[in-house]
Here is the input.
Amino acid sequence: MKKRCVAIVLSAGQGKRMGTSIQKQYIELCGKPIICYCLEAFEKSEIIDDVIMVAGAGQEDYVTEEIVNKYHFGKVRAVIPGGKERYDSVWNGLKAIRDGMAGEEAKEGYVYIHDGARPFVDEQIIKRGYACVKANRACVAGVPSKDTVKIVDENQFAVNTPVRKYVWIVQTPQVFETELITQAYKSLMEHDRGNVTDDAMVVEQEMQIPVKLYEGSYCNIKITTPEDLDTAKGFIEHIKS
Here is the structure.
C-alpha cells in the first residue's frame, strides 16, 4: 500500500544572483511563472498527494492568489511563510505537516523537499524517489558529474582531485521518511546550524544515517542566473518540438 507523500516546495529564496527586481521563481518562463512548472509536475503525479508551499514572509497572499488559485493547483494544502535561511523554511514546512495541514496520514508517510527554482522535475524522477525512499529511508536526486572536480584551498590552489566516478551533482527532490527528517531538523534547530546546505546533510549530521543518491536528470537544473533562463527556454522549446 502506498504511503502518503507530501511535497514541500520552497519558494522563499531571494534569488540575488538573478539580478532582477522579482524573485526568480516568479519570473515568467515561456508564458508562466517558473514555479508553476514543478507545481504542475506534482499536481499531475500519481505519487504526490499534497503540496505545502513555503513562500517569502509576507508573500503568502500573493502566492495563493497569483499562483495557486490562478493556475488551479488543487493539491496545495497551505501556503506558509519561510524563514531567513533555507533550513528555516524547510523546518516551517515540516512543522506544517507535523501540525496536520496535510492530514494525519502524512505524518507517517514520505516528504519530498524541492526547490521551486527547479522547474523540470518530472514523474519519472518522482517515482524513482519513491522507490528509493521505501528501500533506504533517505535519498536525494542527483546526476554523476560529467567534469573532473578539484578541491581547492582558501587561495584557490588545488589540493585534491576526487575520482570522478564517485562525484555526483546533488539536486532536488530530496526524499525522506517524514518522521525521520522531522526529527533530524528538530535536532538541528536546537543548536548551531553551521554550514548546512541541503537536507541530506541534516540527516547525515543529526541522525548518522546514510543517504542514498538516485538518478535525477541533467535537465533538472536550478535556475540561478540569467544564463540558466536561456537554457531553460531551450529545454521547453525542445519538449514542444
About this structure: The chain has seven helices and eleven strands. The CA atoms of residues 18 and 224 lie 6 Å apart. Helices lie at 34-44, 60-69, 86-98, 123-136, 178-188, 199-207, 226-240.
